[in-house]
Please model this.
Amino acid sequence: MSDTIFFRRKHQLWLRIAFTSFATTDLQIKNRLYEFSVIEFRHLKWIAETLVESNIPYDYERDKELCIESETLFELLTLLIKEMEEMQSLYDDSPLSQRLLHDERYMIQTLKETLACASLDEKLTAFNRSRQWGEASLSSEQLDALTLFLFEESYKEYELIMVYFYSQMRASTPLQYGSFQDLIDESHLHLRSFGEMMAKMGILSLPRMLHPRTYKITDMEKFLRDGITEEENAKEECRRLSGLITDEKLSTFFEFINFQESYHIEIMKKLLKEIHG
Amino acid sequence: MENNVNQEVIEHLMHPKNYGPLENPTGVGVGHSEASGEFVIFYIDYDGKTITNVSYATNGCHDTVVFGSMFTEMIKGETLEYAYKAAQRLTEKVALGAVKQQACAQMVLTSFDAAQINQENKANGMEEELHAIEIGMDCEVEL
Model:
């Protein structure tokens, strides 16, 4: 069960579930799907640990055709069920496999119950490219700035999750492991926030695939120093957007993100100190 | 691209064309900035007459993604001579825009140049997985 291809499929499944959760406007379904995506990411972590322990290489390659654009929520849920049902035959008798198998059986059953209730289907607007911000009236300049920011940062948060995840699996001390976990958790929160905003603007799309050069870190010190610079750039962008966008709720949100980035820098400095003294 | 986020740009951002590694390319090149850690990796498959397939990947900004997507679309299925002219046209066009966009375009075009050098080196018997060229300009996010 634990091989590179299996890891890739689980990686894709996690992404598919998370982004389906961003796409729907039904809060109950959204939250349930997001919980499932959290479980899937945990699966991914356990699989990665098994692979690293066994010295089996894995990567973040994905099917080039992987796409989440659909007209309706039920189309996306049907695809999720199909993907999970296909994976059922890949599990063996190990305790880890059995855990994964039973988690996904429960997910399949839950999603099928949703499909049985026709009134829960919705025509999705997450991919309609409308680029409107709901209740707030933003100028075209503000909308452009927000659009580019969301594309930029949703990719970056995905990249950070996967880069920290790769490094965490190879951490040599509890402090490193814990710090990477903090950074991963924070980036999950940001990815979710930005994904929800992209869906609201009709521009939701999967972040592009990561090249191994991005996550196979050969110089951790340089990686952390570059990461601190990137966080500082992201803070600056949040500040700029907060000032540029006149909508109070959005402005407050970017201030909130800005302060979170500040603490990321502190965690990275701690890691830097621990790794290189 | 700044202040000009039209539907074409949105499509390139949502679904970048020719993205991800190629199987058995004839040339692989990297354009990268040591200062920012950003890179573009370019894959080319050339049969001696035409560029039969081409792709790229990057950890760079949205401008780099859009330039890579547009440029690979322009040169796929064309001759190398056409590709050089397309690269020249792109350089001239971005020279009129922001410095940041020039850096992004340069990173894409440098990786294309590097892929051809790698192709030539391999044709001359050199064992080279990829050819990398550092660029001097920084591509920093600036919305």
User: Anything to note?
Assistant: Chain B has one domain: 10-134.
